[in-house]
Specification:
Layout (H helix, E strand, L loop, with lengths): L4 H8 L3 E7 L6 E7 L4 E6 L3 H14 L7 E5 L2 E5 L4 E2 L4 H15 L12 E3 L2 E3 L7 H19 L5 H11 L13 E3 L8 E4 L2 E5 L5 E3 L2 H9 L5 H10 L6 H9 L1 H11 L2 H12 L3
Antiparallel strand pairs: 1-2, 2-3, 3-5, 4-5, 6-10, 7-8, 9-12, 10-11
Helix pairs in contact: 3-7, 4-5, 4-9, 5-10, 6-8, 9-10
């Protein structure tokens, strides 16, 4: 995919004088560009980018979370301010700072579980139709929805789908009835965090919803994005209920695992099946 130089110049009023392709763009092609007026920016070219821009603007307006400023947005073109930082967390201090940011996000309470519009994760639709209970929302809008998407794509075996449906019918055994709808980023792994010198400078690629914050915390451990320095600070601000690490973390991580099954198949199916066995399904 080629860089749309003329469109960028027309949108920003300044020509592109240099461009370098950036890695990590699984949904869109990504470049760092230098403009004739001296600005640096990040350009993304793909599909569904107006939704990403909407979520970034929503976070900038409604929260104190650090996010890149949206300079221009269309359905297939997004231009963001350049932030001089690297993807990931560059040490324990950055983990602690991220904990402060995430705890502040999770302090935002919604009226119901869900969100005002559907969002996206990994380029896949993420339905956010509102629900009164967390069990209903997690079961129908996350677990069963993504399992059916993976099944329909031919990447989840029918036998595994039947086991997921069995687990879904028993969720009240493990999910807390007291859960409150809280704002989550929704796709918070180390690749969507920019940090430098022990500080988090931006969160990227949100997949917003009002959910039980535990589903966010679970995902942050799935690929080792955070460790004890993060949780030590987070617990000071928002104590964790008993059973999160022992049971619910694995249960909630079925959702991002199913996202990966839908996208990639392969070994992720085995991880889903191992989790189902852990819960007797």
């Amino acid at each position: 995919m080629s860089l749309p130089r003329a469109r960028i110049a027309g949108a920003l009023g300044s020509a592109v004088t240099a461009a370098n392709a950036l890695g990590g763009g699984s949904v869109a092609a990504v470049w760092r560009v230098r403009l004739a007026d001296g600005r640096d920016a990040v350009v993304k070219s793909g599909r569904g980018l107006d939704l990403e821009a909407w979520m970034l603007r929503w976070l900038a307006r409604e929260t104190a979370a650090p996010v890149p400023k949206v300079l221009h947005a269309e359905e297939d073109l997004l231009v963001l301010e350049w932030i001089d930082a690297r993807p990931g967390l560059d040490g324990a201090d950055a983990e602690r700072h991220l904990a402060e940011i995430v705890a502040a996000l999770h302090a935002h309470r919604g009226q119901r579980f869900g969100f005002e519009r559907d969002t996206a994760i990994g380029g896949l639709r993420q339905p956010n139709g509102e629900a009164d209970t967390w069990l209903e929302f997690f079961r129908d809008r996350r677990l069963l929805y993504m399992a059916r998407e993976a099944l329909g794509a031919g990447r989840l075996p029918l036998s595994a789908m039947s086991r997921i449906e069995r687990l879904a019918s028993r969720l009240e055994r493990w999910l807390p009835g007291r859960a409150e709808p809280r704002l989550i980023h929704g796709d918070l792994w180390h690749g969507n965090v920019l940090s430098r010198s022990g500080r988090v400078l931006a969160l990227l690629d949100p997949a917003l919803s009002f959910s039980d914050p535990e589903i966010e915390l679970a995902f942050m451990t799935l690929f080792g994005s955070v460790s004890e320095p993060f949780f030590a600070v987070y617990r000071e601000r928002r104590p964790l209920a008993p059973g999160f690490f022992e049971e619910r973390r694995a249960l909630y991580n079925l959702y991002p695992l199913l996202v990966h099954v839908r996208l990639f198949g392969g070994s992720y199916v085995g991880e889903v099946e191992a989790t189902l066995a852990r819960f007797g399904c």
